[in-house]
Amino acid sequence: MISSSCTTVLYLWKHVRRMQVTPNSSFSSPRLQSQWRVTITGIIQAVLYLFCSLWFILTYLLLIFKPDFDGDGHILCTVICLFSFGTNINMGFGQTLFRQRGAYLWNRAVQIPQLCGFNRA
Predict the structure, then answer these.
(1) Is the distance from CB of 52 to CB of 87 less than 8 angstroms?
(2) Is the dihedral of CA 94, 96, 97, 98 positive or negative?
(3) What is the pLDDT of residues 35-55, one digit of tens each?
(4) How many other CB atoms sit within 10 Å of the CB of residue 38?
(5) Which of 29, 83, 118, 120 could link 113 by a cystine bridge, Cβ 3.0 to 4.6 Å?
(6) How far, CA to CA in Å, does 46 sit from each of 3, 12, 16, 25?
(7) 48, 87 contact by CB (below 8 A)
(8) Residue 119: phi, psi to the nearest 5?
(9) Residue 58: which of 6, 46, 72, 50 has the closest Cα?
(10) What angle do CA 49, 55, 59 make, to 5 degrees?
(11) 42 burial type by CB count under 10 A (0-12 exposed, 13-18 middle, 19+ buried)
């Protein structure tokens, strides 16, 4: 997983650099922004995976030297849940529809006090 994430990130990074060199491209083009978004999503996913993998290795080593460390497995379960949650959020924000719906819901939530009459001057 980590090698494929890093390979994808490196490929996209080089591709984005090549596109910036061409005279007709600009950073504000939707295609280039989309490629940057995919690159950032890949980097975040690789960091999440690295953190989770390192925690598994650390837990294994600690269990060898200190068998009563996290005896019930609560810490390990929490790390796995955080990895899963982080992956879902990362992939969700990578989707245009999710970001648009999130922005829409945020704008509606900001309007609730006004609709209830709390911000009257």
Answers:
(1) no
(2) positive
(3) 778 778 878 888 888 888 888
(4) 15
(5) 118
(6) 9, 14, 19, 28
(7) yes
(8) -105, 30
(9) 50
(10) 150
(11) buried
Measured in degrees and rounded to the nearest 5, phi and psi for residue 24 equal -90, 0
Which residue shows structure tokens 């999710």?
A: 98
Give Cβ neighbours of residue 80 (< 8 Å, ≥ 6 apart). 52
Token output for 119: 């911000």
* pTM confidence score: 0.61
pLDDT, tens digit (0-9, with 9 covering 90-100), for 49-99: 888 888 888 888 888 888 787 777 788 888 899 999 999 888 888 787 888
Taking a C-beta distance cutoff of 8 angstroms, is the pair 28, 35 a contact?
no
Q: What's the rounded Cα separation, in Å, for the pair 17 and 67?
A: 50
Residue 98 structure tokens: 């999710």
- What is the rounded CA–CA span in Å between residue 53 and residue 2? 10
Amino acid letter, residue 112? I
